[in-house]
Amino acid sequence: MIDQEMKKAVLDSFEKVYGKNENVKAYFAPGRVNLIGEHTDYNGGHVFPCALTIGTYGAAAKRNDKKVRFYSVNQEKFGVYEANLEDALNPSEAAGWVNYPLGVIWAFEKRGMKLDAGFDMVIYGNIPNGSGLSSSASLEVLTGFILRDLYGFDVTNQDLALIGQYSENNFNGCNCGIMDQFAVAMGKENNAIFLDTADLSFEYAPIKLDGAKIIVANTNKKHKLTDSQYNARRSMCEEALSILQKKLDIKGLGDLSIEEFEANKGLLTDPDMQKKAKHAVYENQRTIEAVKVLKDGDIARFGELMRQSHESLRDDYDVTGVELDTLAEEAWKIPGVIGSRMTGGGFGGCTVSIVKDEAIENFKKTVGENYLKKIGYEATFYTVEIGAGPEVI
Ligand code: ADP
Ligand code: MG
Q: Has 269 been labeled as part of a binding site?
């Protein structure tokens, strides 16, 4: 659902910053929330995210020369960033947030798709940044979508996801898996995406929450998902995999059943590494079960699995922290909360909860008050809707 005010604001801003341009077009790419399957996407496991109706709006037009210009309404102070295409394609501190779109241009060029001219771009997001709702993937996919439209590049939406991930990994230095960009690029209204990250096979699963809604709660914790902590988890899983591969014919931790893992976990003699691998294996199996019970209409079991997911991320994977734990644990106490868990990379960011309509007010009030009491600042609650992938608007 396109927010006409956001669309108008991004187009107005384009005109204000760059002047009138009759070729300007407006675009949108969603954010995403992951319902279950966390830290499994770089372990060859399953994930179950959905695109949201909030995301990043863009306005862009091609230029006749080789200049590129970027402006974000969300980062007014940063101002307009201007560069020549030839020298812009290296990551730099000076480029700030613009490293994301530059990384996407760079990744297109790596695939042999060179820009024959520059462009002007303005973006404006209505998704909180750095909160686990993937504003970065939203920005990457939006940029790729704009490049496809402006330069006629022959790429599918799935390619846009892979290009976005490649740029985030190799230009922006975060070794994220494919989930975020895939969920953003392949989103479908009212459907979550059951994705096997081992081979990118996927199916859409309709989310029909009769009498309940998806609520995202933001811890508002200031900077947290440090790439180093994320990357450290990832290397520990890779090490566990290489040890297990000496005995087992597997390509990823997602290939292991719980029984196989339990029978072989003794090979992982470092207890911390064993816990990380355990999460990857169990979380993958939980995600497979969650999609099955959802199809069977057993939403209560889906909620239990969300809780187990959070507990595993708290106790074994160690990526929650007191803010996320408080939001989830307070939510579990509220009657009418079907399930609640952290979503995204962790260390702060957001929880996702499924809450019955009649319980939503009490949920926000009680969880909000108890969070403030314990943490000392407020959480923010959003009722979110499942939206579609990127589009020209
Ligand atoms: P998340 O993807 O969970 O929101 P990240 O830390 O991965 O968090 O990405 C957030 C970064 O993405 C921001 O710090 C900023 O550099 C960039 N970004 C995302 N949306 C915008 C926007 N609307 N304007 C400027 N930068 C943005
Ligand atoms: Mg991100």
A: no
